[in-house]
Design a protein that fits this description.
Glutamine Phosphoribosylpyrophosphate, subunit 1, domain 1; 17 helices; 2 domains; seven-stranded antiparallel beta sheet; Rossmann fold; alpha+beta; single chain; about 475 residues; globular
Length: about 475
């Protein structure tokens, strides 16, 4: 499963906002590794630097020094609509003169194709193949004069998921869709304000967490301070995978620190799926906390059976076929002296397509494990996500095609246990009705096309490649 995206925004007069945004994006790197970008405003014009690659690859001292002003927004991308190419990197900038806006978006717009055709008929042109540019132009298309009213107009037209940071010449905006599927939080720093997908980004730059942006809320930040505009919401649908996997364990969402929540998932797994075994280990790093919880409840000793190469990440250097065929061995290395002859409980966060888990099991058996018992922190994933997660189509989801015993046999484990939905909710410790559980149940919070194509807009939107990351200015 691929992460969604990370967004950030800051208004901090007298601070180096580009540098603050750089470090915040570095903290949010886990949410997207395909591209990164920063847009700033000095009150007169917008400037942007956005390129393919990791945060550390995109930005240099020189590029950061060219991003001046008191306002900034930033984005880390994993593509969920539109392919990974230079014209799709964010922040997306649209408009002219005083009507210019930069947008960083986490989520998916379900009715993007319909809105795209409508905007084209109105004379709007597009340079990317993302739903973010559709969203941005929809804001511009509003007949309203005030930016808050323009954003409200778009919110009433949009169907789908969006946590946004937006930048005009003189204001920073934070917007969360009425369902609140993707997180967005608000903090303070040295008399200024910050917005971020996760609270861990605030910690890294020395900002103080204030609260979460509420579903359906628009936050406006400028020299006049902070103003909030809220609308009543009928239903909340926070993505439960923020707790299982997406967000960092040191982040706080809905008042719940994720690390102890993941420990509690492991404890619930031990209650629901006990097994007679010698050792417990988590697949690093996402299942480490849950493994601690399983070991603590079961009384089975915890071990570190797989070591993770933490320097394996996305790179512009393609591996040759021999290296590619090594698969998980490039990422994980087992400790045979620890595992030889042992009955092992292996905790992992999820099984999606079932392509990686069999390789992990095989790796552990080669290290000498006598038995391998898989325990999964998520219930079986039987339905795809259309709300900002590039998961899989339904026919690719192994739990949608096979029974649990068949999945067990496919991955080569001696036993397999998934955490139940009720056990998951109990571990998180928050009301069930605030979550989106559609990937487990098929009950989507809004109607969706059964099989939406990630690249559906690709052929419709002609995009010209460009090379210079700078020069986006107001007249």
């Amino acid at each position: 499963m691929r992460e969604s995206c990370g967004v950030f925004g800051v208004y901090a007069p007298g601070e180096d906002v580009a540098r603050l945004t750089f470090f915040a994006l570095f903290a949010l790197q886990h949410r997207g590794q395909e591209s990164a970008g920063i847009a700033t405003s000095n009150g007169k014009r917008l400037q942007v630097c956005a390129e393919l690659g990791l945060v550390s690859q995109v930005f240099t001292e020189d590029s950061l020094s060219q991003l001046s002003g008191d306002f900034a927004i930033g984005h880390n991308r994993y593509s969920t609509r539109g392919s990974n190419r230079i014209t799709n990197v964010q922040p997306i900038v649209v408009g002219k003169g005083a009507n210019t806006i930069a947008v960083a978006h986490n989520g998916n717009i379900v009715n993007a194709e319909h809105l795209y055709k409508e905007l084209c008929d109105q004379g709007y042109t597009f340079r990317s193949s993302t739903d973010t540019e559709v969203l941005a132009n929809l804001i511009l298309s509003s007949p309203a004069k005030d930016w808050v009213d323009k954003i409200r107009y778009a919110m009433h037209r949009l169907q789908g998921v969006y946590s946004l940071t937006l930048l005009t010449n003189r204001s920073l905006y934070g917007v969360r869709d009425p369902l609140g599927v993707r997180p967005l939080c608000l903090g303070t720093i040295n008399g200024g304000w910050v917005l971020a997908s996760e609270s861990c980004a605030l910690d890294h730059i020395g900002a103080s967490f204030l609260r979460e942006v509420e579903p359906g809320e628009i936050v406006v930040i400028n020299e006049n301070g902070l103003n909030s505009y809220r609308e009543e919401v009928d239903r909340k649908a926070l993505c439960v995978f923020e707790y299982i996997y997406f967000a960092r364990p040191d982040s706080v969402i809905n008042g719940r620190l994720l690390y102890p929540a993941r420990q509690a998932m492991g404890e619930m797994l031990a209650q629901e799926h006990p097994v007679d075994a010698d050792l417990v280990m988590g697949v690093p790093d996402s299942a480490t906390a849950a493994a601690i919880g399983y070991a603590r409840y079961s009384g089975i000793p915890l071990c570190e059976g797989l070591l993770k190469n933490r320097y394996v990440g996305r790179t512009f250097i393609e591996p040759d076929q021999r290296i590619r065929d090594l698969g998980v061995r490039l990422k994980f290395n087992p400790l045979p002296q620890m595992l030889d002859g042992q009955r092992l409980v292996v905790i992992d966060d999820s099984i999606v397509r079932g392509t990686t888990t069999p390789k992990v099991v095989k790796l552990l058996r080669r290290a000498g494990d006598k038995e391998v018992h898989m325990r999964i922190c998520a219930p079986p994933i039987r339905y795809p996500c259309f709300f900002g997660v590039d998961m899989a189509s339904r026919w690719e989801l192994i739990a949608a095609q096979k029974t649990i015993p068949e999945v067990r046999d496919f991955i080569g484990a001696d036993s397999l246990g998934y955490l139940s939905i009720d056990g998951l909710i109990k571990a998180i410790g928050l009301p069930k009705d605030i979550f989106c559980l559609a990937c487990f149940t098929g009950d989507y919070p809004i109607p969706v096309q059964i099989e939406m194509d990630k690249l559906a807009l690709e052929t419709s939107m002609p995009a010209e490649e460009y090379s210079s990351p700078f020069g986006i200015k107001q007249g």
